[in-house]
Amino acid sequence: MPAIVLIGAQWGDEGKGKVTDLLGERVDYVVRYSGGNNAGHTVITPDGQKYALHLMPSGALSPSAMIIIGNGVVVDPKVLLQEIDGLAERGVDVSRLRISGDAHLIMPHHRALDRVVERYLGSSRIGTTGRGIGPAYGDKVARMGIRLQDLLDPGILRKKLELALREKNQLLFKVYNRKAIDVDETVEEYLRYAERLRPYIAETRVMLWDALDRGETVLLEGAQATMLDMDHGTYPFVTSSNPTAGGACVGAGIPPTAINKVIAVSKAYTTRVGSGPFPTELFDDNGQHLRKVGHEYGTTTGRERRCGWFDAVVARYACRLNGVTDLVITKLDVLTGMAKVPICVGYEINGERFDDMPMTQTDFHHATPIYEELDGWWEDISKARTEDELPENARRYIARIEELCGTRVSVVGVGPGREENVTRHPLLP
Fold first, then answer.
1. Out of 54, 104, 109, 140, which one is annotated catalytic?
2. Beta strands 352-354; 409-413: pairing state
3. How are cofactors bound according to the entry's free-text note (predicted)?
């Protein structure tokens, strides 16, 4: 079987790590193709162990799959090494990791600028994690970036860093009144990282091409989600890369003809972290209930997630944009005990109904949700493993999501554990 893309259908935090882990034992490669350590996947293994992964692909917990960090990722080497060491201490084999030499590095000036610019923006801030991801992608596009392969050539590393800091230190010191970054200290620090990372750096494109030629299964794992895509999300309140299915080809270096399945993950409700428009956001007891019962706090930042009802306009947009073949709906169990479970089926904007995403950010920001209320259920669904074991109202809720999105719902999550799922259609043959 060729390549499979796994993406988020909302604003992230949908449970993609759980799905990757679910498929991990049945695929040969798991590839992270976008983002940096501003993302996080939480995986709970059958024995109850909890892993919070940030840069490492979720396939790291698979016993046999090769794990790849693709060229589309920006890598903070200190964070990556901490994650490698943490997994190794818990008995996870990290020798299967390979990192594209073309992946860009997050440098100290990226982190410094990310934090100071966010503070400078005040109430207009984007809501970044302050980890340097945006500035690193900015330098990549400006052709001033430093890549993993540059760690292997100390002369090139120093030359590129000196060039970058000519501008960045001027900004930090003269504009933002912050301490300049020292070239010598940074080179010394990053050469230490180079010694440890050297065995992992590889030409990952050729590895993936060869795997596809052998008929092996490659799972391309996105970070963040569709509505945070640089081009197709709620710009400017987005991430700095393309976590959509199209970005998988660019971020991993494989042809689009290799992809034959796109799996999108969506919560049974909606959450978002950071600033930006969110039509179905709840500010009442229902929102607090979803946050408390769903444990809606960021894996990477610990920030409270904004919570709202399921938005079928957003989900349908994600399905069409990504060419989704299978939907996975997670956290259905969080809705248990609610008398009514509304679904947003459209927006009202200036007296006009929209069944699809409005063209402008202004319209989206002022969109009022049009809700369709479904009856809730009170039964504990955490032990359900077949659709027949779900309460009738829960089945109706899933069927309505499927109808509104125009894409089949293949798996329904009924708890956080790897096995706590109802499979309606197998994700893999």
1. 140
2. unpaired
3. Binds 1 Mg(2+) ion per subunit.
